[in-house]
Amino acid sequence: MGRLMYSMMTTLDGYTADADGDFGWGIEQDMELHRYFEELMRPVRTFLYGRRMYETMVFWETAHELPDEPPEMAEFARTWQAADKIVFSRTLETVSSARTTIARDLDPEAIRELKQGGDLTVDGPGLAAAALAAGLVDEIGPIVVPVVVGGGTRFLPDGVRLDLELVEERRFDSGAVHLRYRTR
């Protein structure tokens, strides 16, 4: 049985984007963190995205073609391209990446069936909130970066109560920390 994992970069004060929607405070040139994240994502069979997160991540469909990119970028691009993607959107009509389908609503039973085939991620705080509320998320893995932004889009939604067990932690030279929790 696979796991449904929710993992994103978050500020120390718990935001995935600041009040202006910017997430450029992330540590994009931390190749150690990038390699580690690629290793975490390698076993993922399906990425579940909201529309906005998909529009950000579709970059990986052609990232391997960019000149002068570090090898870590091409490696993650291959991992991303090899996985299925489902975009949950009521407005998106077409997708611009292979192995990608559109779903209008998050169907908990369909997600449970997908978990039978391997690991999945839920990406984007809005979609993750729905998956958390439905009791679908098996692991939560914030990648905490050393910055405070004071407000914006929260990593975890209000009103969700979870009991968690810490199963892994990893520190990076950049000051980022990955914490991996299993839901109980």
Walk me through the structure.
The protein is of the alpha/beta class. The protein has one domain: 3-Layer(aba) Sandwich (Dihydrofolate Reductase, subunit A), CATH 3.40.430. It is 26% helix and 29% strand. The chain contains 5 helices and 12 strands. The strands form 2 sheets. Strands 1, 2, 4, 5, 6, 7, 8, 9, 11 and 12 form a 10-stranded mixed sheet that branches. It has a two-stranded antiparallel ribbon with strand order 3-10. Helix 1 packs parallel to helix 3. The protein is globular and about 40 Å long. 30% of the residues are buried. The model has no long low-confidence stretch (mean pLDDT 94). Pfam families: RibD_C (PF01872).
Fourth-tier CATH superfamily name: Dihydrofolate Reductase, subunit A
Helices, by number, come to: 5
Largest sheet: 10 strands, mixed
User: Any low-confidence stretches, pLDDT <50, length ≥5?
Assistant: none
Instruction: Write down the CATH class.
Output: Alpha Beta
Radius of gyration: 16 Å
Tell me, rounded to a whole number, the average pLDDT: 94
Question: Order of helices and strands, N to C?
Answer: EEEHEHHEEHEHEEEEE
Measured by DSSP, the beta-strand proportion falls in 25-35%
- Alpha-beta classification: alpha/beta
Q: How many structural domains does the protein architecture include? A: 1
Label the overall shape: globular
- Euclidean distance between termini CA atoms: 16 Å
Query: What is the CATH fold-level name?
Result: Dihydrofolate Reductase, subunit A
Instruction: Report the count of strand segments.
Output: 12
CATH architecture: 3-Layer(aba) Sandwich
Q: Which range best describes the helical content: under 10%, 10-25%, 25-40%, 40-55%, 55-70% or over 70%?
A: 25-40%
